[in-house]
Specification:
By secondary structure, this protein is an alpha+beta fold. The chain is built from 13 helices and 16 strands.
Length: about 375
């Protein structure tokens, strides 16, 4: 059954035009939000400060395949006519570099100052449904555990999310297999569906929270007609129909646990560079390391938390050395955690089907194909 537009029914769907989208950005800024949105940077879709609709990627789409990404022109005026770029919202919520504390030598001895993270007001415009699901998975890991992460919590505290339902999935997307798209699930403040007719662009708006309703109340809107809702639903259904990649998740945890010695791992290792690209672009990976740096005088030291990767040899260093020395064991660790032991830890998969790990793998390793190969081998 194809997905429909998912709505919280706080308010009936409404319509805004391109000027209304610009007013949305202005209204968020007037409320003190730092607004981020998609823009073309260095040949990719990236997230940056959004000042107006003119900053959005007008008339661009992305072509993606395993190990390949290209931006190509569209023949219409869509602003959200692409899938996802290499940069996920994780880079803002869970930055690659975060200060933990500062240690200084004083006349009275040593002084330790813990870094107290600020809680900025931010709004994200253009969050894809799979990325919304990824943010909620990171919430589960970094906020809802026994020891919540203060830096992530501060970045998440005043965040407003404007989702854009997906109408143009990439060839590497498999969100339908993970039930994370192409229509947004709960957890957004506002959800837009872009309705494009050559140069005419409109947006069906759904409200997901009281904050979202308050922002929308300040915009000029028109009630959505039955035809508007039908077009929005069809756009999402067409996107779902266009997703060719599939990942069979039935019994996937036991499948991977029961095949830890499968020859497929060595087959993957013959190609894998253990570069960690897949963990860097993944919107849910959260592994970090702690690094201490000292100035030349030796009187000032800082501890920083940096992104790390289970593909790094030193990541598994225990006692005499790394206990995952081979590339096969490190790839197995990543995939098995993402699709199996994550379920044991957090009662859900760690994958949202965005396809970034496939697109940005320099040797075009396809997670979905490798799981299928393990399943076929087990069945034989």
């Amino acid at each position: 059954m194809l997905p429909e537009i998912r709505t919280t029914q706080l308010l009936p769907p409404t319509i805004i035009d391109l000027a209304g989208l610009g007013s949305l950005i202005g209204e968020l800024e007037s409320r003190g939000y730092e607004v981020f949105g998609p823009q073309v940077r260095d040949g990719v879709i990236a997230h940056d400060i959004l000042r107006s609709v003119d900053d959005l990627p007008l008339g661009w789409t992305d072509e993606q395949e395993a190990g390949r990404y290209r931006l190509v022109p569209r023949r219409d005026a869509a602003r959200f006519g692409y899938a996802v770029g290499p940069q996920s919202w994780k880079e803002i919520l869970h930055p690659s570099r975060t200060k933990v504390w500062t240690l200084s030598k004083t006349s009275d001895g040593l002084s330790v100052s813990m870094h107290e993270p600020e809680a900025p007001k931010r709004a994200f415009i253009g969050v894809r449904p799979c990325e919304l699901a990824a943010i909620h998975k990171q919430d589960r890991v970094l906020l809802e555990g026994t020891h919540p992460d203060p830096s992530y919590g501060a970045n998440r505290e005043h965040l407003l999310l404007v989702v854009v339902n997906c109408g143009d999935p990439a060839a590497t997307c498999f969100c339908t297999s993970m039930d994370t798209g192409p229509s947004a699930g709960p957890g957004f403040d506002l959800a837009l569906t872009e309705l494009v007719d050559d140069e005419d662009v409109r947006y069906l708006v759904e409200v997901g929270s009281e904050d979202g309703a308050g922002v929308l109340a300040e915009l000029r809107t028109t009630p959505a007609t039955v035809d508007d809702v039908s077009k929005a639903r069809r756009a999402v259904e067409t996107a779902a129909e266009g997703i060719a990649r599939q990942l069979d998740t039935v019994g996937i945890k036991d499948l991977l646990y029961d095949n830890l010695d499968s020859p497929i791992w060595e087959s993957i290792a013959e190609r894998c560079l253990t570069c960690g690209n897949c963990t860097l672009v993944c919107p849910t990976c959260f592994c970090t390391d702690l690094v201490d740096v000292t100035d030349l005088t030796g009187e000032h030291s800082e501890r920083w938390r940096l992104w790390d990767s289970c593909f790094s040899l030193e990541y598994s260093h225990l006692g005499p050395g790394p206990h995952r020395a081979s590339g096969a064991s490190r790839y197995r660790q990543w995939m098995t955690h993402k699709l199996a032991s994550w379920i044991d830890q957090f009662d859900e998969s760690g994958c949202v089907g965005c396809g970034r790990c496939i697109t940005w793998c320099p040797v075009a390793i396809d997670l979905t194909a490798e799981v299928n190969a393990i399943r076929e081998g087990a069945e034989r």
